[in-house]
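Workshop exercise sheet. Pairs work together: one partner reads the sequence aloud, the other fills in the structure field after running the prediction. Swap roles for the next sheet.
Pair: D.N. / O.F.
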Amino acid sequence: MKLFKKNPSPPEGSKKAITKKNEKKNKLSSFIHTRFGFYALTVFLFWIKTYIAYQTKFSLGTTGALQQFILLINPLAIVLFLFGLSLLFKGKKSYMILLITDSILTLWLFANIVYYREFSDFITISIMTSLSSVSNNMGSSALSLFHFSDAFVFLDLIFLIFLLIRKKIKIDTKKMKYRSVIALLSFSVLLFTCNLSLAEADRPQLLSRTFDRNYIVKYLGLNFFLAYDGYQTKQTSEVKAQASSSDLTSVLDYVNQNQTANNVEYYGVAKGKNVFVIHLESF
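Structure field:
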């Protein structure tokens, strides 16, 4: 008499399903171990954390399905391009350049999260060139502006470095074809063009009549905003460099020629009194 029965072997269909699942897992593992696979993982993690930051750390006033879609894709094009430059190198140098680029963009994102919490605005080039005044404005409250949840922007970077240090992901020393890298960079430019077209469709003359930095970040991303602000700052500096006191002559002439006569009824009625002027812009 048999007391125990042998475990029945799984059905043939289950075996095939398990085999396919293992094959997919092995393919994914093999892909991540390639240089392009590590690049793709880095891009994906940075993209997701940026989108989460947009939704939870900033008030961008996103409304409607189109704006939500633009907000989702706007970090991707520039990250694909900047991270993709690391693929032009090979071996450890490629991985190092990729992680350095990731670190710089992560610090930029983190700094804006903290700065936005205090000033409801984004860091500009002029602010970065006058760090002393910024630190004076923030004073001793700088540390209190940091929330523990802000640290999530560093988690993906720590995770990637851990994988490399623990050799969970091995360095791929194979050289990528320049043709493939150029194709990737070209695709990122095309993606940005599509992003810009969608932005212009929803917000015409976005770059020519910008009065709110939230619009630039909402439609084109935080990283593009840095480049755009850099260009604007350069343009302003060039105008200032070419300016002279004689430029005011035509302005003063116009003002003198178009002054209105004093209103006799009200002229001087506030003499000797405190006057409060309240200016409501876009009220």
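Discussion prompt: The mean pLDDT is 86. What would you look at next?
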